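Per reviewer request, we include the raw input and output of the structure prediction for the construct analysed in the revised manuscript.
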Amino acid sequence: MESGNGFYSVDEFRLDAKWLIDPQNLFVGPRIGEGAHAKVYEGKYKNQNVAIKIVHRGDTPEEISKREARFAREVAMLSRVQHKNLAKFIGACKEPVMVIVTEILLGGTLRKYMLNMRPRRLDTRVAIGFALDIARAVECLHSHGIIHRDLKPENLILTADQKTVKLVDFGLAREESLTEMMTAETGTYRWMAPELYSTVTLRHGEKKHYNHKVDAYSFAIVLWELLHNKLPFEGMSNLQAAYAAAFKNVRPSLENLPEELSIILNSCWTEDPNARPNFSQIIQMLLHYLSIILPPEPMIPSRIFMSENRVLPPESPGTSSLMPLRDDSGETPKGEMENKPKGFFFCFNHCY
């Protein structure tokens, strides 16, 4: 059932049998990530290299029920959205353990990519290219009635060539209760829109009204981080950052940023959610800024090529076209998984 604001209720999400995979065809290799309730492995499914997310069911009946429902919702959402900037969903199974299988992305997280570059900043064109990748992914989610709610560099993964960013992890979709999301200081607070919490909600995890504009706020914090390669609200704990943003209207500094970028950031993280742009508007603002900073195209005689100056369409530019061939040290950037030992794959049934 679709709600009045165009977003889907929890009853809409069900685990569709057509996405169930046969665990006999699933093999698990080295672990490549870990969260509070799941571990992610490199693996194979029918000879295809994949990422395998194995969800821990929990120990109590209440935990098991909650995590099974969350698993079903995540799979339902993954199965109905496809986009070049979203990790491709391959399938899932519930037995012998809950598993979600997606394409493997070996470029590492955006967080690790930026840490490896410090103290240097990303080239502005690369930062904007990554931001466009993220914005297009969220625009796709919103068009399907899904609010991601957890935009942050840890949930943004680079392709093996480190030229494209893809959004992952639907674990905190809108249908999740705020109680579960806010019971631990996970770091999410730093990117979380102020309307998601108040003094009461931080203490008790009570719900507060919000809409898809929470993703615009989080996007602005990520964009600021891309431009500065610094942790937002540096010097504050995660909870201090949350309180500063919510109750003092504190935002990261806009000093030394071009006016066009300052306008984008200010509009996206403004206190009033209704005043924030949607992601179609964000994409157009980013494309406009990119058209300003990109060098003009060489003049081509009209007798050879009859065309007006090229205008970047919504599906352009691919981030790959904006990546510098070399970094500031003069060396070609290397993928963080390049030297990782591959190891041999062992049977899925031995994993847990």
